[in-house]
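Obj.: predict assembly geometry.
Materials: sequence records (below).
Method: joint structure prediction, all chains together.
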Amino acid sequence: MTTLDEPVQVEEEQQPISGLALVPRGPQGQKPADYRSDQEVRWCPGCGDYIILSTVQAMLPTLGLQKENLVFVSGIGCSSRFPYYLDTYGMHSIHGRAPAIATGLAVARPDLSVWVITGDGDALSIGGNHLIHALRRNVNITVLLFNNRVYGLTKGQYSPTSNQGMVTKSSPLGAPDAPFNPVSLALGAEASFVARALDSDREGLADVLRQAAEHRGASLVEIYQNCPIFNDGAFDVLKQPGSDRHLVRLVPGSPVGLGELDDQGRHSHLVVREGGALRVVARDEADPAQVLVHDPADPDPTTAFALSRLSTQDLSHVVTGVFRAVSRPAYDDDVRRQGEDASKASPPDLEDLIFDGDVWSVPSHRGASA
Amino acid sequence: MSTERIDRVVVRFAGDSGDGMQLVGDRFTGQAAAFGNDLATFPSFPAEIRAPQGTVHGVSSFQVHFASSDILTPGDAPDVLVAMNPAALRANTADVPVGGVVIVDPDEFTKRNIAKAGYASDPLSDGSLAHLTIHQVTMGALTLGAVSELGLGRKEALRCRNLFALGLLSWMYGRPTEVVEDYLRQKFAKKPLVAQANVLAFRAGWNFGETTEMFAVSYEVPAAALPAGTYRHVSGNAALALGIIAAGWVSGMKVVLGTYPITPASDILHELAKHKNFPVLTIQAEDEISAVGAALGASFGGALGVTTTSGPGLALKSETIGLAVMAELPLLVVDVQRGGPSTGLPTKTEQADLLQAMFGRHGESPVAVVAPSTPADCFDAALEAARIAVTYRTPVLLLSDGALANGAEPWRLPEIDELADIRPDFSTEPNAADGSGTHWPYLRDDETLARAWAIPGTPGLQHRIGGLEKAADTGAISYDPANHEFMVRLRQQKIAGIDVADLDVHDPSPATTRTLVLGWGSTFGPIQDACRRLAARGVSVAHAHLRHLNPFPANLDEVLARYERVIVPEMNLGQLALLLRGRGATHLISHTQVTGQPFKAGDLEAAVLAYMEGAAA
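Observations (raw structure tokens):
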């Protein structure tokens, strides 16, 4: 259904308000197959995008929406083919501009669940400006940033998240650029919801995607995604035996830890506060008073930022899960509310508008007599 | 003292950009409107907000032309120049014809101010203005005296000097005073002392004219015999904004404006932002690209996406406009043209974006192009552009310019009930020709070639569109050579086939006229005025003005063929002429001017005559 003609407003009392509060609810019992389009999926064999696609298709029925009220907007790049493979509405737009297009759509249509599919080049290089401003404004959209740390569709140039020194066709002597940390960037851009997941971690990915969709305002989910052709194995250290030593899975209200679990289910290592920063220490060396307990709702982004810095480019300590989820007004709600308030105060009437101000009449006889 | 009846007058107020000349000009315009004169205005201001005081760079001016008959331009030259300081005098005297009236404040002609303005000697005493009628009125001192009872500071009191000037001119031309006093009381409602000071200064100016013997005559410019109707005076940008709101009204679509501040287009945003009680949402985006992206995203959602900009912004938007061409979605792109290239002349006018509008995208990327011809016409042009965008699912470029944007004229208000309905016909049922029960977004209407448009939220019609080439009908991605050829030609054909009104020709004697002047955009006034002047001299010249630049009216070639020569005046280096030559026209004379200023009717009159005589010789 569409609600083009009906003004809709989020109830202010409920806290936090769901990102899907104004989207019509759908039939029960949807299946992942309901979200498959008739298009043949055409990514390279072994591409991480396949598993992300099937995870999304499996997750969408759990949102309980009508699929015609979902829109996926993408930019340009391998990941941006994503919308073609989902039986929802979609737009495969132009390089870097998906957040801008999604902003207009979200403002115009509160009854839609609007998703942006983008990659590291699309979101962080050519579209960097739109991304940070969509996050700053807190537009009610959900951004999935597929980060494979390389340009795939243009055949293997280094990207704004590539390791410094990476040898590619465009950097035979090593990439001179320092990379972005997308989570740090998003937090710096005042994002109200920031998360990270691995393509191979179906459960963790589905969980953050669901939370991201339910978040009212802009959500950014960075997904580490393997490109088997131009940057194969970039994230293997997180997928192989022993990855526990590198992976931090954030759980709200729980101590932030990593490493092997002991017989009581406790991590071998913990993240502790030290000065203004965070550090990983062995459990027996940790001062219990300094052990970080995860609070994504902390209004101060400082700790979330420090967590994002724990996860360095070399993947020694990669934090996954929801870094930050705080409630603040969504841009599109405010834009619409201004209009609704103004309309209540002064119902629109085109004749009144046009005949407003200093008007004067010229009677027909004056024209004739002059 | 006597009162002389005259038919028209051109008054120019000039001063520092902080002197309130735009306000005074605007009020003088309001008085003329309230009196029932026809009028046209030409505000001119520097790109700098407050350039160094007292310098020629900082001079701001406002020219008002009002008359008892219908007029078409703000006037070629001022009959009266009010110059608040030496710099304003220096920047404007050259435009005043021999015998013209100049009112100056002699107290402003200090050594320092004279030097700042760049004069080597005092122009009031060196004889250089002997060809003009100079009136020295100590406007500052008289204002101070008039408001002294209020106990304002000197600086604050002197700020009312502009109202003294307005009062004097109001006396000189018998203008109604209540409208000004009412305005001042309203504007300064929260500062009653300031309101009172301005009113006192205004009255002092009037009384000065009435009592002093400096001015031998005052003038009367009777009301004009305008066609019957209800009028208001309106600037081009305001009319454009109202046209956009009206387009939302008659299409039943929410208007979503995505825009980024840029001179001289920002006032459209300001105007629309004031009317959020209408289904009008404004997004001040982070840049020009985002602005058009947001507009297109809104269009995808079934709203009327609009973006407003000037030439530099249009350059940034071109890729997204290309996407709108491919996605075949309505999009209204307003370019208020200014002098270019690059930052160029931000506050001055030019028509040099025509070819950018036509061709400034990669690939074969046709769009409709529409141009308003007068400030009030911006309303109709916006409606027409929206009609085309919605009916044909296409981006439409609307080319206004700096002269239209800030110029004002009386606007005969439309009958709201008579505005055409332009409701989009959204798809609600599956249309697939193969009976699959799905939606084919690129199936077309046989007549308009507009594609089927289903908006998100419509059950069962889920589909994906984008920038990749589309298979005809199904809209699926297609790299097929024959399909691309077909689709490129189809998109071209769709734009070429847009139904637009035939070109009207104003020809005083169709049987014998051999010269046509063909223009587009804001040159309408000066061209029409020039043609009238020629007719008054017994020289018959036809005038036609293009509202539609793409597609051209169907009868264009036939109209061109009627005349021996076609003179095409443009404020560029011949962009329309180039397009016409591309259609095979060979009898064109491209007459161009790129001063950042509108054509003067007198100059055009002389130019047309010279071309005709040249041809005869």
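Conclusions so far: The two ends of chain A are 59 Å apart (CA to CA).
To do: check interface contacts against the pulldown list.
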